Amino acid sequence: MGVLTMQNPATGAILGELAEATPEEVRLAMERARQAFGGWSATPLPERLHYLTRLRHYLVEQAEALAEKISADTGKLTLEALMTEIFVTADTIRFYEKHAKRMLSPRRVPTPLVLWPKRSSIHYKPLGVVAVISPWNYPFQLSVIPALSALAAGNTVLLKPSEVTPYTGLVMDELFRAVGFPEGVIQVLHGGREVGQALVAAKPDKIFFTGSAATGRAIMKQAAEHLIPVELELGGKDPMIVFADAHLERAANAAVWGAFTNAGQVCMSVERLYVEQSVYPQFVELVKAKTAALRQGFPRQADIGSMTFPRQVEIVRDHVADAIAKGAVVEIGGRFEEDGMFLPPTVLTGVTHAMKIMREETFGPVLPIMPFSSEEEAIRLANDSPYGLNASVWSQDETKARRVALQLETGNVCINDCLVSYANPHLPFGGVKQSGIGRYRGPEGLRAFTHAVSVMHDPGRRKREVNWYPYTEEQETMFVGLIKALFGRERKWNRQALRAAWREWKRLRE
């Protein structure tokens, strides 16, 4: 059994140690989750939501203390922890409290006339045991929100937080215990890759993974052996397109925040900035000035905290070095030769799509800026990526902005703002291409933790149906008439054929 060291990446302070789960502990946790599923799925939705309400109350009462613990585990500022970890989670819980009943209730749907007098409906049933494997960049909300979504839908949950941020994993474990969820309904399994592999091997009924594309592919491959459905929320290389008619001051402020918030460790970060040629020099100067004004520190009285994961620091260094070697210019920042977890916010120009900085996910405080000359070129450059998670378009011409936005190959797009679409719990979230499979948040996201059961109900008063045995020539004649009457070229139905078919229909059902 391994041991995880809990360490503050910003200060180096050791926060403690945490034992990893053993394969046997994973197996026993799965048994408890399966045993708990029957009772939890049968628990009325209002009662399940009551547990979420208690959790929300706890979040509100302990918001500052929780933010400080998350900050200590990740190196992010306490304000960022409050905004992006606590606030977003509490808001999502409130959304479920208000709307989960409507989203999960049986839904009547139309039934074709030829199936009269049957009635049709859709029912949403929980899947069973859901495995949630979460990342280190937002270790609280990217764990709690999918876990609570699964719980609200009636599933039990096994949560494996990232081994990079084990202190937050411990905090969540304590949180769920404080709320008082029934035994086995939600369990936290601490550990790294081996624990994740054991969790997938335990055959949950669904896997929800947030992290890198490489790890997502490995999980999907392992899950495919047992036909376990997988939802993947993966990385991004998100473009920001600024047209000359945009509010340049606003766009520059957004670019700096969108690139450097959480030290750039956001799957929706602005990682590629395309600016129309006529305002490119002016815009670069605006971004440089705003970047120069940023304060770096921890945990308060600063704008940018530290990086969280030492391995990610090396990736950022490599991407910047590759860009410089291929001709990029460091406009500001770029002092990466120093040791430590604090990387200065860096702006690059002279970049091309031949550089890693424009092709691969950097996940750090680096903003490469590139000019474009036409709307068509901006769309082509933005779509020239294996990723498709998020994007933003900036223009005061609303028609143009919407036209461009809807041509981008992405799962989420903002107009005259960035990243903020995730903050609306009514909207589904997810990517295309190598940015993931599936959606969570919003009605689609809650129902993603269910399977839809199609129900068709007939009163059952007649002896037979027209499509049942024995087959007759009259049936064939009737269906020919129906096909012509209902689906023929003419908009106006062939009334004579329809009446004849209807008479035969009724006779055959008697």
UniProtKB/TrEMBL annotation:
Does the entry feature the keyword Oxidoreductase, yes or no? yes
Report the record's Gene Ontology biological process terms.
Answer: aldehyde metabolic process
Q: Which residues cross the membrane?
A: none
Catalytic residues of the enzyme: E233, C267
Q: Which UniProt keywords apply?
A: Oxidoreductase
InterPro entries found in the cross-reference section: Ald_DH/histidinol_DH (IPR016161), Ald_DH_C (IPR016163), Ald_DH_CS_GLU (IPR029510), Ald_DH_N (IPR016162), Aldehyde_DH_dom (IPR015590), Aldehyde_DH_NAD(P) (IPR012394)
Top-level taxonomic group:
Bacteria
The reaction(s) this protein catalyses: (2S)-3-sulfolactaldehyde + NAD(+) + H2O = (2S)-3-sulfolactate + NADH + 2 H(+)
Residues in domain Aldehyde dehydrogenase?
6-453
What would be an example GO MF term here? oxidoreductase activity, acting on the aldehyde or oxo group of donors, NAD or NADP as acceptor
Which family does this protein fall into?
Answer: Belongs to the aldehyde dehydrogenase family.
Role of this protein = Part of the sulfo-TAL (or sulfo-SFT) pathway, a D-sulfoquinovose degradation pathway that produces sulfolactate (SL). Catalyzes the oxidation of 3-sulfolactaldehyde (SLA) to sulfolactate (SL).
User: What protein does this entry describe?
Assistant: Aldehyde dehydrogenase
